[in-house]
Amino acid sequence: MKLGVLLPTFRDNADDAMAFAQRAADAGLDGVFAYDHLWPMGTPTRPSLAPFPVLTAVTRANSTLVVGPLVARVGLVGTSHLIEQFTTLHAVAPGRVIATLGSGDKLSTAENVAYDIPERNADERRALMAETARALVDTMPVWFGAGNDTTNGVARDVGAVLNLWNATPERVRALSAGGPVSWAGPVPNDLVTSLDALRDAGATWVVLTPDADIDAFAQWRAQS
């Protein structure tokens, strides 16, 4: 099971994100990821760094880390532009990019409204995810933000990994029966027990939020 962390990108500059990525690399973690929000959810007065420039800088500074947004929300930019963002990042760090895609939900609606970004229904958003995935899946791994059975079915059709947010190990195990599943979410209260359970359930990756204790995360791997 591979280990990753989300970078602290709700900042005015990338200093904290770059330092956190370096700590992750030094500890032997496998990857770092970045939120794709126009502001931290629920707090529109706070800053949020765009993920692709930060991740590009990370790949230039670290030759081992896998990177990706978590998740790139379709519809924030045009589909062709989103595909080009991923392919450009791949050109900088070939073999180290995951195309992590999400459809968005009601929690991110305010961002679309504030910037006059068209709201699309669920079927339209799934179609955009599928279009993007098909353009990238032969070049890099693709993750879909997992959702209902319809979304998960589209993911499997295009060869994408299901990425579950804060799901139970039982949910991971059930969906792993149909193909690869990755897990992302907040730091569990009992880190060791939770990581053991997610590994045993079949999670291919675990990605923790920026409040993760990187040393404890890496120590689990050393002792497991």
Question: How does this structure look, described?
Answer:
This protein is an alpha/beta fold and 224 residues long. The protein has one domain: TIM Barrel (Alpha-Beta Barrel), CATH 3.20.20.30. The chain contains nine helices and nine strands. Strands 3-2-1-9-8-7-6-5-4 form a nine-stranded parallel β-sheet. Helix 7 links the parallel strand 7 (161-165) and strand 8 (181-185). The longest helix is centred in the middle third of the chain and has 15 residues, at 122-136. It is globular, with a radius of gyration of 17 Å. It starts with a strand and ends with a helix. The mean pLDDT is 93.
Summarize the structure.
With 224 residues, this protein is an alpha/beta fold. The chain contains 9 helices and 9 strands.
Can you give keywords for this protein?
single chain; 224 residues; alpha/beta; TIM Barrel; 9-stranded parallel β-sheet; 43% helix; globular
Structural class comes to alpha/beta
- Report the C-alpha radius of gyration, rounded: 17 Å
Distance between the termini: 11 Å
Content of β-strand: 15-25%
Largest sheet: 9 strands, parallel
Number of domains: 1
Low-pLDDT segments: none
- Mean pLDDT level: 93
Shape: globular
List how many beta strands DSSP finds.
9
CATH topology type? TIM Barrel
Helix content: 40-55%
CATH class: Alpha Beta
